[in-house]
């Protein structure tokens, strides 16, 4: 795939509008996410490896907030079980439309993929061995997060895994600032200007609500997960697993 460069915040914007996953973002999304999320490629490939370990025959694997289907493709490539179905969900019609084309071109496996355009709050999770939310929960209103995690817990089979990647906030101001600064250095090193970094930060302010690792762990435990573990961290970007 040819990656079109993300220049959305390169020129000064007269009026800041909240960040949305619209056609403009979809058009540059692979470039945007790779230059903005430290370790994105590592996460995608290791999520495929984790999914292959926990997927079982005759079960569903969910990719919630699938964007262009990177997690789905990685799971599809790695899972070697019989009669597994991947259900990939996103509420951005532009994302789902492009994901559809990308998935059609992928002949890597015979694992079926069902692409669904809906709010993940409405997704019925059932017979699941694997559920992935790779940087999606952070966009869900705080008041809805516990209900969603509870639904995922309920829909998982015993021994099933939730893989949850999130941008974190840290309770300690100095630690929080250290990670934010390091992340901004990462973006600068990937060619984003100070203006791009600052304008996107403002656009995300009311849209991407990060929580602390402790808040995530507490919510996972409250839902019933007995085992939770952080398996990846680079600056303020982490990925956790929770096993039923
Ligand atoms: N309520 C919602 N219901 C469904 N989808 C939603 C909702 N809110 C946001 N989204 C969708 O969640 C995705 C978040 S991006 C995930 C990256 C992907 N997982 C990846 O591994 O490439 C992360 C990021 O861009 O930082 C977007 O496609 C939104 O449309
Ligand atoms: O760019 C950022 O600052 C981020 O936190 C990551 C991100 C990546 C893609 C869309 C929205 C947020």
TrEMBL record:
Q: Which GO terms describe its biological process?
A: methylation; tRNA wobble uridine modification
Question: Which Pfam families does the entry link to?
Answer: Methyltransf_25
Could you list this entry's UniProt keywords, alphabetically sorted: Methyltransferase, S-adenosyl-L-methionine, Transferase
Q: What is its EC number?
A: 2.1.3.-
Entry keyword annotation includes S-adenosyl-L-methionine: yes
Source organism superkingdom:
Bacteria
This enzyme catalyses: prephenate + S-adenosyl-L-methionine = carboxy-S-adenosyl-L-methionine + 3-phenylpyruvate + H2O
Q: What residues does the Methyltransferase domain cover? A: 63-160
Instruction: Tell me the protein family, please.
Output: Belongs to the class I-like SAM-binding methyltransferase superfamily. Cx-SAM synthase family.
Please give the name of this protein. Answer: Carboxy-S-adenosyl-L-methionine synthase
Species in which this protein is naturally found: Methylophaga aminisulfidivorans MP
């Amino acid at each position: 795939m040819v990656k079109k460069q993300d220049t959305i915040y390169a020129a000064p914007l007269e009026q800041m509008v909240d960040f949305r996953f619209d056609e403009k973002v979809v058009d540059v999304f692979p470039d945007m996410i790779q230059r903005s999320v430290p370790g994105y490629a590592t996460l995608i490939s290791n999520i495929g490896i984790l999914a292959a370990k926990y997927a079982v025959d005759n079960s569903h694997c969910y990719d919630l907030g699938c964007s262009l289907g990177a997690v789905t493709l990685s799971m599809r490539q790695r899972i070697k079980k019989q009669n597994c179905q991947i259900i990939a969900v996103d509420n951005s019609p532009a994302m789902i439309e492009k994901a559809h084309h990308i998935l059609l071109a992928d002949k890597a496996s015979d694992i079926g993929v069902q692409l669904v355009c809906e709010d993940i709050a409405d997704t019925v999770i059932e017979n699941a061995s694997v559920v992935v939310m790779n940087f999606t929960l952070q966009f869900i209103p705080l008041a809805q997060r516990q209900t969603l995690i509870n639904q995922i817990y309920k829909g998982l089979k015993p021994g099933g895994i939730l893989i949850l990647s999130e941008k974190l906030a840290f309770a300690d101001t100095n630690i929080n600032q250290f990670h934010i600064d390091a992340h901004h250095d990462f973006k600068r090193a990937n060619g984003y200007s100070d203006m791009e970094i600052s304008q996107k930060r403002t656009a995300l302010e009311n849209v991407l609500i990060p929580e602390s690792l402790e808040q995530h762990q507490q919510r996972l435990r409250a839902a019933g997960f007995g085992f939770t573990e952080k398996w990846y961290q680079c600056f303020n970007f982490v990925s956790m697993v929770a096993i039923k």
